[in-house]
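Please predict the structure of the following assembly.
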Amino acid sequence: MTDIDNIVILTGAGISAESGLATFRGPDGLWEGHRVEDVCTPEALARDPVLVHRFYDERRATLGAVAPNAAHQALAALDRAWGGDLLIVTQNVDDLHERAGATRLIHMHGELKSALCAACGKAVAWSDPLPPASVCDGCARPALRPDIVFFGEMPYHMDRIEAALQQADLFVSVGTSGAVYPAAGFVQSARHYGARTLELNLEPSAGSVYFDESRLGPASLLVPALVQDLLG
Ligand code: OAD
């Protein structure tokens, strides 16, 4: 690929699937045996904090048993080598991008390894189980919750993402179904600002028609091939 300086790469659950982490929208619409609405909304947290906290405790605990795959490694190599602007925007709450070595990275939907104070807004690194009503060390109130962006809440870093999309020459989407906004709309923004748009996914996503090109297959093959292409 030529004439590309600035790149934005959006990743979703599909990039971590080959590491052994479940995606969200399987044929039965369940995620790890739960409906997403039962564990990923502010209402669910208010109604049944024990269930919601336990669900994310279990997800956090699985991180130790999985490792970055070739797709995460390839994006980390691109991050190290790319001379222009690069922003990896992940919808994933796992830590596989950073464990592979990526640094130009934004977690727009939060992180399993972080706890958020619902009272004062302070976020703190968290590796252990997080019981409901755990105390915030910033404001001393018993208000820590999983640092996950629930449905109905505003994703993180939208200003920075929008600015990167405005400057992007290439927008790549990897392993996302395109079912959840605002991330699903990034391809249209990127196009609007003049970027070339490329989708890498196992199957066409909901927004597939908006991409200039779709490459179908596993991320562990498609992403390293793209990175090799970009780095020449
Ligand atoms: P989904 O589960 O909706 O979509 C995963 C996509 O990855 C699907 O299109 C699969 O075909 C594709 N896929 C699966 N395995 C793959 C592989 N090995 N290589 C390439 N592609 C593969 O997950 P997301 O789009 O990430 O939000 O879901 C978006 C958001 O919905 C999540 O961030 C989460 C959820 O609600 C929050 O938790 C806030």
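Residues 12-14, 17-18, 23-25, 36, 40, 91, 109, 148-149, 175-177, 179-180, 201-203, 205, 218-219 surround 2'-O-acetyl adenosine-5-diphosphoribose (CB under 6 Å). The mean pLDDT is 95.
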